[in-house]
């Protein structure tokens, strides 16, 4: 958190007012650095392709290299918590270090944990990831709404209290998700649309963009869902190695393209461990996404 009266540095030459929320900071980062989020996914196959051991030492080297190559050069960086958690407390210690080093670099940190629970347990998760006193505190966190959107209130409240954000799963790329997400309620809306509409109410009137966003896979195709009223960021994973292409963004997001933060992970990461190659791969991904988004902007 910044001291009162100071500006929050987002990227070289770009500032937002002190105390600005996540949405405002992300909007400034996207406008300055381009629309791209890159994951830190230390998958065993990537560690092997980089010539690293599948242990905490390899995890640390992988994460450090990605951070040094891309921090301050892309709008957001998204560590996947599971690949750190699999090494237990030592892996979590590496994740804490990654978050600490990335925050304030100019790239916002979106921690991909997909948490979701009820009552005091949800509040404890919110404290873990959205309280500045926690070593795991990120700029935003991914959450699952399938215990009911109301169960996410601790995350939403903690995020807004601290100028942070949350991305709520809405329409994911995995084929199993459709049975739940596209199920139709009594009022004719899909489950996903009810989630989107709930978030639209949370973000209503916030400028330039609300702090609560959604996750919509870049490979879901035209969905018929209304996103234009969301007034919050749309995290769009699935590009690159997962089959999505930048030009797919136009078909999926239509008139909500300006809200989209495309996410690339393994295709960019596979360019490592050379830092210059990682940066070049990220720049290619960013430019292709910016071109696709600008077509109908």
TrEMBL record:
<feature type="active site" description="Proton donor">
    <location>
        <position position="114"/>
    </location>
</feature>
<keyword id="KW-0665">Pyrimidine biosynthesis</keyword>
<dbReference type="GO" id="GO:0004590">
    <property type="term" value="F:orotidine-5'-phosphate decarboxylase activity"/>
</dbReference>
<comment type="similarity">
    <text>Belongs to the OMP decarboxylase family. Type 2 subfamily.</text>
</comment>
<keyword id="KW-0456">Lyase</keyword>
<dbReference type="InterPro" id="IPR011060">
    <property type="entry name" value="RibuloseP-bd_barrel"/>
</dbReference>
<dbReference type="InterPro" id="IPR013785">
    <property type="entry name" value="Aldolase_TIM"/>
</dbReference>
<feature type="domain" description="Orotidine 5'-phosphate decarboxylase">
    <location>
        <begin position="35"/>
        <end position="281"/>
    </location>
</feature>
<dbReference type="InterPro" id="IPR011995">
    <property type="entry name" value="OMPdecase_type-2"/>
</dbReference>
<dbReference type="InterPro" id="IPR001754">
    <property type="entry name" value="OMPdeCOase_dom"/>
</dbReference>
<dbReference type="Pfam" id="PF00215">
    <property type="entry name" value="OMPdecase"/>
</dbReference>
<dbReference type="InterPro" id="IPR018089">
    <property type="entry name" value="OMPdecase_AS"/>
</dbReference>
<keyword id="KW-0210">Decarboxylase</keyword>
<comment type="pathway">
    <text>Pyrimidine metabolism; UMP biosynthesis via de novo pathway; UMP from orotate: step 2/2.</text>
</comment>
<protein>
    <recommendedName>
        <fullName>Orotidine 5'-phosphate decarboxylase</fullName>
        <ecNumber>4.1.1.23</ecNumber>
    </recommendedName>
</protein>
């Amino acid at each position: 958190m910044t001291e009162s009266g100071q500006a929050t540095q987002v990227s070289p030459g770009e500032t937002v007012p002190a105390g600005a929320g996540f949405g405002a900071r992300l909007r400034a980062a996207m406008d300055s650095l381009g629309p791209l989020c890159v994951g830190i996914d230390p998958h065993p196959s990537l560690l092997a392709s980089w010539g690293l051991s599948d242990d905490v030492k390899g995890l640390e080297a992988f994460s450090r290299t990605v951070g040094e190559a891309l921090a301050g050069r892309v709008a957001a960086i998204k560590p996947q918590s599971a690949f750190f958690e699999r090494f237990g407390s030592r892996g979590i210690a590496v994740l804490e270090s990654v978050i600490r080093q990335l925050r304030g670099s100019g790239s916002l940190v979106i921690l991909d944990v997909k948490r979701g629970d009820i009552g005091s347990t949800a509040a404890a998760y919110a404290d873990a990831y959205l309280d500045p006193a926690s070593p795991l505190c990120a700029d935003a966190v991914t959450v699952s709404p399938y215990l009911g959107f109301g169960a996410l209130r601790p995350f939403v409240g903690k995020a807004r209290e601290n100028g942070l954000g949350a991305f709520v799963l809405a329409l994911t790329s995995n084929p199993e998700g459709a049975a739940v997400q596209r199920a139709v309620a009594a009022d004719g809306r899909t489950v996903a649309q009810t989630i989107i509409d709930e978030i639209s109410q949370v973000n209503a009137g916030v400028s330039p963009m609300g702090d609560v966003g959604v996750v919509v896979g870049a490979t879901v195709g035209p969905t018929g869902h209304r996103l234009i009223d969301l007034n919050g960021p749309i995290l769009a994973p699935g590009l690159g190695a997962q089959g999505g292409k930048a030009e797919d963004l136009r078909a999926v997001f239509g008139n909500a393209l300006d809200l989209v933060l495309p996410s690339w992970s393994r295709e960019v990461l596979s360019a490592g461990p050379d830092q210059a190659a990682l940066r070049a791969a990220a720049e290619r991904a960013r430019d292709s996404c910016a071109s696709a988004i600008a077509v109908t902007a």
